[in-house]
Amino acid sequence: MEIRIAEHAGACFGVNRALDIVRKAADGSHQVYTLGPLIHNPRVVDELARGGVHSAESLDGIPSGATVVIRSHGVVPQVITDALDAGLVVDDATCPLVKRVHKAAEELHGDGYRVVVVGEKGHAEVEGICAYAGPDAVVAIDPSELPDDLPPKVGVVVQTTQSAAALQAIVEALRPKVEDLQLRNTICLATRQRQQAAAALAAQADVMIVIGGRNSGNTRRLVAICSEACPRTHHIESQDELDPAWFEGARVVGITAGASTPADHIHAVVAALEALR
After folding, report:
1. What is the pLDDT along the chain (277 residues), one digit of tens a residue?
2. Which of 88, 120, 210, 246 has the most CB atoms at less than 10 Å from its CB?
3. Together in a domain, 20 and 6
């Protein structure tokens, strides 16, 4: 049984940056909180908690003087203002590429375009983007979610971890409906690389293992992409979930991982698979 790891897999620049920021904060004397999970990986969040980093769903209850780390997905600007007003120390771990989406949405709205955000409703990153996209922003992941009453000028931005297929479907649906369509393809390079590498490996593999949080949208998209080429695709968070029966008769086992999956999680899965050979 040959084990192959996708050319691009695992934690991206934004996630590693966020982890560096929170770990540096935890080395200081202040209490440290993240506003919501720092990244969408329950194992990493648990590891941070064991290191004294608390996760809070709101600013309420975070003691004055504590450090609050803004997670990689970003927040609406008012949250940072409220945190500073509450006497908190703010460390902003928002991914720079997410901030690029904020800027694109703000510019399009300022130029008179109604902004369509291609992304998941309720996702933390999307909520932050909408704060810059104007009160009439539309969130859609499927053309069926687009409203009928679109103005002549529409601008499109994309959640950084969305799939190219979702973006293309929205754009194709919009083209015949509007006079002036402005597209800002803000899918990040790391996402594109991981999706392309996963698809290429899945086409060669008998079994695919996708590692990452089940609450991670980009990991779930990798699962969907791999499943199209390799029906024996399995989504796991840890090596403890591996089932030897999955690999019966398999010659090539492929591994990929979501953008919130640290390298040591991938190494642990590889070691467990090697023990099965």
Report:
1. 999 999 999 999 999 999 999 999 998 767 999 999 999 999 999 999 999 999 999 999 799 999 999 999 999 999 999 999 999 999 999 999 999 999 999 999 999 999 999 999 999 999 999 999 999 999 999 999 999 999 999 999 999 999 999 999 999 999 999 999 999 999 999 999 999 999 999 999 999 999 999 999 899 999 999 999 999 999 999 999 999 999 999 999 999 999 999 999 999 999 999 998 8
2. 210
3. no
Q: How much is the pTM?
A: 0.86
The one catalytic residue in 125, 127, 145, 237 is 125
Tell me, yes or no, if 248 is annotated catalytic.
no
Beta strands in 103-206 (DSSP E): 114-118, 138-140, 153-158, 180-183
Cβ-Cβ contacts under 8 Å for 36 (sequence gap 6 or more):
55, 56, 57, 71, 73, 124
Give the end of a domain, one of 66, 95, 124.
95
39 and 52 part of one domain = yes
Whether residues 251 and 174 fall in one domain: no
Is the same domain home to 115 and 40? no
Q: Whole-angstrom Cα distance, residue 269 to residue 237?
A: 10
